[in-house]
Here is the input.
Amino acid sequence: MKITLNGKPTEIENNLNILSLLTLQNVKSPEMVTVELNEEILNKSDFETITLKENDRVELLFFMGGGAW
Here is the structure.
């Protein structure tokens, strides 16, 4: 099945949920990533219940703290 992941066409297996996708993408701390699915921000509590579909657009957003120069 094809999705767009961070702007790139990506082939994934069928019936994959968001949490499984994060695992496949080697995301070490899923609780620290924001996931956007088809331009909607998902609640972390939904990562296990939302199953990806053909042509879904997924963006993984990682926020990092910075410091002063």
Observations:
- The beta strands are 2-5, 8-11, 33-37, 40-41, 57-62.
- The two ends are 45 Å apart (CA to CA).
- The CA atoms of residues 11 and 63 lie 26 Å apart.
